[in-house]
Amino acid sequence: MTVTYSNYINGEWVSSVTREVFPSINPARTQEVLGYFQKSNAEDTRHAIEAAANAFSSWSRKAAPLRGEFLYKLIHLLEARLEELAETITREVGKTLREARGEVNKTILSMKQLAGEATRLTGQTVPSFDENVFAYTVREPIGVFAIIAPWNFPLGIGLWKIVPAILAGNTVVFKPASNTSLISAKLTELLIESGVPAGVVNLVTGPGAVIGEELARNPLIKGISFTGSSEVGLALGKAVGARGGKIQAEMGGKNPAIIMPDSDVDLAIDCIVTSGFFDNGQRCTGTSRVLVLPEVADEVKAKLIARAKAMKVGDGFDPASDNGPLADENQLQTYLHYVQKGVEEGAKLECGGTRLTDEGRGDGYFVAPTVFTGVTPGMTIAQEEIFGPVISVIDVRSFEEAMEVANQVEFGLSSTIFTNDLNKAFHFVRGIQSGVTHVNMPSTHFESHFPFGGKKISGLGPREQGESALDFYVDLKTVYIRP
């Protein structure tokens, strides 16, 4: 029997006022319904916001180190339920069980890094010009924050937004992506079991346009932390900013990899396959543009095409699978659209570009890893985020041209270069317009104790994670005291 899940508002699981539900399905077997979830509206969202606002007073006054005690139990629960959570992610997102376990492990590491933040809500003591004045700063909670999480890393991103917000003393309304409502409900259950009080975290599922509109316009929402497309993030930022609210948005990427003639080409190919093809390229930091110089162009293309053709695409629970299905019908149609666009604009489709329906894959959103060559910098597939397993190889004549092309997009999230020339590596690091960059590593590599975020239309507001994790969720107060 398929379970119907409720919203979680003010410590209770409640149905939407609409009395409507929607399904979450398995993208590998689209006839399999994983659960039904509340199709909430603006009224439901207001109830959640009001519950969070009512809980703010008592939660924000609680001593910060005591606020953080729930996190120790949360880490234990994540470790104890790693396999259950990973299996849920594979069923709902489609990624392989290997990748799903990786997400849970990354989430655990992130929570361990955050575990001490409640005891490090520090300010500064700064000498005053007046010897009779004692001056210092404190960081204070603000109010209710909306957390809007994506579907590609629903557990990890959901928690590394929610946890800093409530550690800082705020309360939260959590709106997950609709197609990952099941893992988001389990995430909420973990927070409840960890001891987070009623009203501090509230879950509302349903259409993003309806719920997002209320979150953006409601004056009780002091800020929104969002991960998703640049189009939606920029629109949210405009709406929230118009009423004086705060926005933190981690958005799209069109991430370049430059392969220099002196590089280890096999290492470069391994890293590009990891970052551009695994998880179906459904990572905002994934490599989607490979910039090659003439000396290594033929070798890079041949090896990348061979690796793409050799990848096994199948159910995520099959240990032999390198990739599972795309996340949903929308992602499938996006992939097919950009493949067609690439062909129409004159790029050479070397491999992939098709939906896979044989070998028992006809009921899922399975697609082939795809390589285009002959891509020029102005082509649509070289400019727009595809969020699928599509890599565009662009020929450049020099390092200087590679740098120019790498920066010739609206995005600026991640990047990487493959070289054994230290001078070139540092020149690249200084000149690349991205918030995260790498040398001889996959563009998807990140560690949770370092700040994360992008430039240009890839990011708005303070960075997430690392020492910056709580910056978005606090106000700074300067205090002057004359005894």
How would you characterize the overall build of this protein?
With 483 residues, the protein is α/β, with parallel strands linked by helices. The chain has 2 domains: 7-251 and 458-481, Aldehyde Dehydrogenase, Chain A, domain 1, CATH 3.40.605; 255-439, Aldehyde Dehydrogenase, Chain A, domain 2 (3-Layer(aba) Sandwich). The chain has helices at 42-61, 64-67, 70-80, 82-93, 97-114, 154-167, 181-194, 208-217, 230-242, 265-276, 294-310, 329-344, 380-383, 399-406, 422-431; strands at 7-9, 12-14, 21-26, 29-38, 134-141, 144-148, 171-175, 201-203, 221-227, 246-250, 255-259, 287-292, 348-351, 370-373, 390-395, 411-412, 416-418, 438-439, 455-456, 459-460, 474-481. The strands form 6 sheets. Strands 13-14-15-12-11-17-18 form a 7-stranded mixed β-sheet, sandwiched between helices. A 6-stranded mixed β-sheet has the order 8-7-6-9-10-20, with helices on both faces. A hairpin with a 2-residue loop joins strand 3 (21-26) and strand 4. Helix 3 crosses helix 7 (181-194). The radius of gyration is 23 Å and the shape is globular. The termini are far apart.
